[in-house]
Amino acid sequence: MGRRATGRNRGARGDEVFLIFERALNAMNHDTIVDDWRKNAEAHDAENYEFLRSLKFGSYGFRPDDLASELHQRAFQIVDCTRCANCCKTMNVIFTKADVRRIAGHLGMPKAEFIDKYLEVDERNGAFKARGKPCPFLGDDDRCTIYEVRPKACQEYPHTDKKGFTGRTLGVSGNALVCPAVFWIIEQMKQRALKRHR
């Protein structure tokens, strides 16, 4: 049985690949990530989807959940969501009943008034969604005006740090077209996989 190239037991080749990977990560900044996403997200969409699917069956020398979570932490140390806010501008924001209660209370509005003013029923799942895009709570400065009580879906977005990464292939792939950080995470995972197979 061969040694696994993970953790403290990577070996010389694994250490070399790890250092190359670390240097690439450290060279990134918000603008380079967003520029790369703008230029390449659509062009890489099919390839990224196939790669994400392959994570369910392939062995790349890393655990997808662990690497995705690690890259998620790094991505959101680099990417400033308030300089992008593309998710708030382009996605349907879903509000659960608990979200409605919490946000209406925060705004000092009766639930019915809050729903009438800001929401409509999402026919797919019976929850509520914002009446239009961008989200009505996105400020002119691209900051969420209800950030401390924002919907659960917004709190958890883009879901790249949750367990079960490979079970959300379609969602993660779709989010890569919306979120520069998700695109970067997938691209970094692909690079790690390719370097292992060289």
Supply the key terms:
2 domains, mainly alpha, disordered N terminus, 198 residues, three-stranded antiparallel sheet, 3 strands
Describe the protein.
The protein is mainly α and 198 residues long. The chain is 54% helix and 4% strand. The chain is built from ten helices and three strands; from the N terminus they run αααααβααββααα. The chain has helices at residues 11-26, 30-40, 45-54, 64-78, 86-90, 97-107, 111-118, 152-156, 169-176, 180-196, and strands at 94-95, 119-121, 128-130. β2 (119-121) and β3 (128-130) form a beta hairpin. The protein is elongated, with a radius of gyration of 19 Å. The chain starts with 10 loop residues before the first helix and ends with a helix.
